[in-house]
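Good day; I would like, with your permission, to put a structural problem before you. A protein sequence and the structure tokens that stand for its backbone fold form the material at issue. The record follows directly beneath this note:
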Amino acid sequence: MKARDKYIITGVVLTVLLIIFLHFMPLFDLKMTSSYQNNLINYLKDDSTLIIAFILSIGLIVYGLIKKD
């Protein structure tokens, strides 16, 4: 397995885990709003950590795609 494959796999796994976490987050009652979609949008607007995590996971995928072995 090449190093670039490891970056791509890690980025994809992190992205999938973040999407799963965001999907089930309203079930954890982290924030109470009227609907699921509003809850998710409001939480994403308030929390810059999740946005940074998405950017880093997508960055890992892109870095793996452009990395030369």
Notes: The longest helix spans residues 3-24.
